[in-house]
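Protein in question quoted for reference:
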Amino acid sequence: MSPNAPLTQTLLVFPARAFVATDGVADGDPISFADELVMDDVYQLDHDARRARLGLALPAEADQPTDAAATTFSVSADSELGRPGNILHLDSCLTLMTPDSTTFEALILVEVEDGAVAEIYFLPLATLLPRTDYRLVGVDRQTATTRLAEVACVSFTRGTHITMASGKQVPIEHLKVGDKVLTRDDGPQEIRWIGQTTLRASGAFAPVMIRKDALHNENDLIVSPDHRIFVYQRQDRIGAGRAEVLVKVRHLINGDSVIQLDGGFVEYFQLLFDDHQIIYAEGIAAESLLMDPRTRPAIPGAPGATRHNYRPHLAYEVQESLLSSPDAVALLRRASTSH
């Protein structure tokens, strides 16, 4: 990844045909973009529906306004769905309601090829069940960028101990703007902004727990699923071709030492510095919030630049395929041990 390479994000989505209207004006049709939707139509998720990876690539930095929210992407090269290079539009945020009046939100993304719609993708922000009625009760173009930003924002949960510049371990909810945190690359750095949100712990927002000592962590570490941790391998046990790697925690889920906590609500905290940093949480090196056009809508009022500059450690992220082994966590633990 070079300084001019596009930022990418992977979303686990359904093709539109997996979510079909069973009652109403659009009866028999798959979910579509905002202009074609009719309020109060009822949809169901196909019982064989399977999420697949949709890779979003932001345009190179030189091609984007620095203060613009991202609504247009392209399909990235590692995407399971779509054709790499095709345009992707973030169309809208839908509100769906079950018969017991519980509401859920979902994002609609539209792939365009040669000026025409090639495919529509459906990203529920909570876990939807097959053979359940979901009535369309809201379509909002404005909140879509905020919801996608919340997915992209890496977050720690309440109670996470952060290592301060003094070496003291402080629960994240006790931190204040201006406090100095120990960073891997730049020593003590002041916190510029702290975010706090409570979300339904489901789907794209269900946190991941790395159990105590799984990666030499002092306590359980619970973070958002796309949060990246930093591992220095004394031996390259996963075949990354380098010692330093960034790993998304959701790629480490094994049902044992790393699990996803789906259900209830989760309180998330975000830490923003002048630059994107690697800090220490429960003894694990983990990234801070990266400010870019994806995340900017979720951090209103944050001071300083509207985009973080490129940092060399961003090139260290490894692909999911290198972590497909069921003992990937154990391999990383051994790789980071001095003996």
Notes: The longest strand covers residues 87-97. The mean pLDDT is 90. Helices lie at 144-152, 328-335. The chain has two helices and 23 strands.
